[in-house]
Specification:
There is one protein chain. The chain has 488 residues and is an alpha/beta fold. The protein has three domains: 145 residues, Cobalamin-binding domain (Rossmann fold); 239 residues, Aldolase class I (TIM Barrel, Alpha-Beta Barrel), CATH 3.20.20; 34 residues. The chain has 18 helices and 17 strands. The chain is globular. It starts with a strand and ends with a strand. The relative contact order is 0.09.
Amino acid sequence: MKKKIVFVEPKAPGFHIYSKWALPRLGTALLATILRDMGHDVKVYVEEVHKADKEDLRSADLVGISTITSTAPRAYAMADELRESGVLVAMGGPHPTFLADEAMEHADYVVRGEGEDAIVELLEALDGKRPLNSIVGLTYRENGKVVHNAMRPLCPDLDAHPSPDLSLIVGFGSGTRSFFKYKPIIPVLTSRGCPFNCKFCSVTTMFGRKYRFRSTEKVLEDVRPYVDKSVFFYDDNFTANKERTKDLLRRMIEEGVTPEWTAQVRADAAKDEELLDLMERSNCFGVYVGIESINPKTLELYSKGQTLDDIKESIKKFHEHGIRIHGMFVLGSDEDDVRVIRETARFAKRLRIDSVQFMILTPIPGSKIFEQFKKEKKIFTFNWKFYDGHHVVFKPKNMVPIELQKEAIRAMKKFFSRAQMLKGFFRGDWHGAIVKGYGNRLIKRWERFNKEYYYQLKHELYEELNTKISKITERFKHSDLNGVKYQD
């Protein structure tokens, strides 16, 4: 039976250095493509691109809401409103996968893990063609109780899925701008999973450590229509299997399918000279490198599997091949202090990294850090809108929360300063100068937007200090110091 299904990817509550250039995740577009090919009436709203039409949502037979942790409050509010209007709501994505019971307080169904098969089976169940308890990976209610079916195994053959039809995303392509060349950015996924297991990351919990990838022919099929655009390879680690990546890049070069492209990679990609050469020849203009930290002890703590020398050499090598670097750092580990954060900002400037994000360590549900910090009672807020990597949500070991918050923003200010912008102009690096000018304005805006959060952190610090002082005072009151009883 033909149904109207609308998917929504809620808007994030804050903003960052890339907020201006909306880049939709591909999960909802892929699900919509699968259902469209089955004859259903489908549509996708990515709110970073186009605000969801409430009337359109209310007229749907089923609304699928995909959410990460920071967008969960918006997703839950939307789900509550829709269900009050009598619309069925299914939730999916990383956050509901790891916190399904919480999501079920707002949804009729939760699709956990990879949802391509589960969403099809759910529609069959709604048509009475199969029982809900037969759908692997589904969470639902039965007689008022929440039921979690067994987790669905990861899809072994990504080629079994169609290419996501981006035209199903309302408004996509109209005004979306690339960070580097001001062209529409086209997301293309070539793999899932990551063989590494960084403690702060939930990717391996969601998609596994086994690196699964689509065939070169399938990827080329996705890229061919966009040779005049900018492509972002959406993989969590585009070069995890270097031989496979080199095969793809060779084919792109041979067939002349070489749009400007960028991807997320590890620093170790720069150790392979052949890979670097192919990246340059295939028109790679930038990479997002998970540098994470310049503190060797922190790198070890994160289980990153790379050294500071690896990082320095990778920056040098990428630049030698004309590839810009967006350095991603994670600040606030148990081995970090104020000195480390300040040195990180100096490091980024000294090595002329093109752009950066100094992210604050965030215990995302699904990560090892989340379970560890929760057990240690280090997390002081579960307001998910602050879980965006730009707000402190836990008590760091060597700093108070307000210290970590201020130092992370101060590091961003130093990197995106007007002085750095002018240096870019004088060196003839117009791109870098523009990036730093934009970043400078954005950070000022962010601080104005987050004044209340700063106040909350300060207030909690004073409350904590007052509590400690009160406990010490109370202890002295009942102590006998050198035979003299404490008196008020």
